[in-house]
Design brief:
By secondary structure, the chain is mainly alpha-helical. The protein is 53% helix and 0% strand. Helix 5 packs across helix 7, helix 5 packs parallel to helix 8 and helix 6 runs antiparallel to helix 7.
Length: 195
């Protein structure tokens, strides 16, 4: 049951997330899909902690709005990695779109109580349901989102081979670094809103 405090937090996290996405992602196939997807993003995405167990994420990610905080941190880190690797233009938009929406179904769909091990695939399928176009840039983003958890498929972390897929590596690295306890920070967009 949503409380009035939840509704205020929901509105604030939705507003910040939407504004940041629309500031960063400017290419038409992504914006057109965004307009269709935005109203259907589960409210729990904006209110849930980033980790259902409290493990694998710093404290600021483990409260209400934690997935949004984690996502905005991953986007910030991803921007720096793309600057470092010289990723620009459409490839940059593909990575940004993927970073913003990689955890959109983190707890499954319909929303569950714990992190779904296949949430990348679920997120890509959720997004594909809104896309009627066989747009190559969207297909690439769906591929990145669906495979962003691949290094953790086995019993332990299995890093990618250097140079194998730079865009996927940026997504995985940004996601990984944004969830490390020793890399704790509040994204600039949330300063003053989250402590």
């Amino acid at each position: 049951m949503e409380t009035s405090l939840d509704k205020v937090a929901l509105f604030q996290f939705q507003d910040i997330f939407r504004r940041q996405f629309e500031t960063d992602v400017k290419t038409e196939p992504f914006l057109a899909l965004w307009k269709l997807v935005w109203p259907s993003i589960p409210h729990d995405f904006f209110l849930s902690p980033s980790s259902s167990t409290g493990n694998h994420h710093p404290a600021e990610n483990n409260n209400a709005g934690g997935i949004v905080i984690h996502t905005l941190k991953a986007v910030e880190i991803g921007k720096h990695l793309m600057d470092l690797y010289g990723i620009s233009g459409l490839e940059r938009e593909i990575v940004l779109f993927s970073l913003y929406l990689h955890d959109i179904c983190k707890y499954g769909f319909p929303w569950g109580k714990s992190t779904s091990k296949v949430h990348g695939i679920t997120a890509a399928d959720f997004l594909k349901a809104f896309s009627k176009v066989e747009e190559p840039a969207l297909k690439r983003a769906f591929e990145l989102i669906s495979t962003h958890m691949d290094p953790w498929k086995g019993e332990s972390f299995s890093p990618l081979i250097p140079g194998e897929d730079l865009l996927l590596q940026v997504l995985i690295q940004a996601d990984y670094l944004a969830s490390r306890e020793k890399i704790s920070f509040i994204p600039p967009e949330l300063k003053g809103f989250v402590n």
